[in-house]
Amino acid sequence: ETLMLLWSLIVSMYCMGGMIGCLCSGYLTAKFGKKKSLLLNDGVLIAAALLTGSSRRAKAFELILAGRFLEGIAAGIHMNAHVQYAGEISPKKLRGFMNVTSTVFLALGKTLARILGLRELLGTEDMWNVLLSFSGLVALIQLIFLPFFPESPPYLLLQKGDKAGCLKAMKQLWGERNYQTEFDDLMKEKTITKGTKIMNVLEVLREGSVHPQLCTMLFLLLSLQLCGLSAV
User: Fold this and answer.
1) Domain residues of the chain, as ranges?
2) pLDDT digits over 171-181, tens only?
3) In this structure, are residues 64 and 10 in contact, taking their beta carbons and an 8 Å threshold?
4) 1-149: CATH homologous superfamily?
5) CB-based contacts of 192: which residues, under 8 Å, 6+ apart?
6) Is this prediction's pTM over 0.70?
7) Is 86:102 a contact under the CB 8 Å cutoff?
8) What is the 3-class SS of the chain, one letter each residue?
């Protein structure tokens, strides 16, 4: 019974951390920007990988619990910040494609994780801790290369009011040409959103006009989570 309880906690701790990460993602991306939020996440993922990777040698299940919890927080923030950042730094004609493609790579990552978890690969008694900490390797790669990318142009203009930085980021991302059209679109967006109140989660739940949308999302996600996938 104790082992079953610990196993359930280890599995569930990731989702608990993910919920907290999702709730924090809006504040972090608005306060620090998408790029810095992603760099912070990479650091959290690497720390989580070190905890879970050393759990087997230390023979401490508490390290696995802490590592899974940190991984969940990082995943919750990452799922929001990464999609926004990838879409905002993409050229306008490819922005929609990039936003949709992120779910494809998410499914690809899950598939790769299932394959690595086979007993013929990393799902063995000697290698399970390596499998649990594998996400730290991906985070380390992004931590190395992401500093060479600029902050997203919409964040620089809409949040920071940095017109020169926004134009510089556009040229660095999309090459040297005239970006007056894109710049004007961002300025129109800034004018439209000026004075608009940013709502927190509780305020959104109290807003009656979005209840149909919230119910649609709730039933869809509940159907995915409660369809037996976790049991399988």
Assistant:
1) 1-149, 199-231
2) 888 887 777 77
3) yes
4) MFS general substrate transporter like domains (1.20.1250.20)
5) none
6) yes
7) yes
8) CHHHHHHHHHHHHHHHHHHHHHHHHHHHHHHHCHHHHHHHHHHHHHHHHHHHHHHHHHCCHHHHHHHHHHHHHHHHHHHHHHHHHHHHCCCHHHHHHHHHHHHHHHHHHHHHHHHHCCCCCCCCCCCHHHHHCCHHHHHHHHHHHHHHCCCCHHHHHHHCCCHHHHHHHHHHHHCCCCCHHHHHHHHHHHHHHCCCCCCCHHHHHHCHHHHHHHHHHHHHHHHHHCCCCCCC
Task: Pull the structure tokens for residue 54.
Answer: 């050393």
Query: What pLDDT is recorded for position 69?
Result: 92
Whether the Cβ atoms of residue 213 and residue 221 lie closer than 8 Å to each other: no
Provide the token pair at 193. Answer: 């959103």
Q: Which residue has the tokens 């660095």?
A: 172
The tens digit of pLDDT for each residue in 76-112 reads 888 888 888 888 888 878 878 887 888 888 888 888 8
Distance of alpha carbon 149 from the chain centroid: 17
Written as six digits, the tokens of 16 are 């608990």
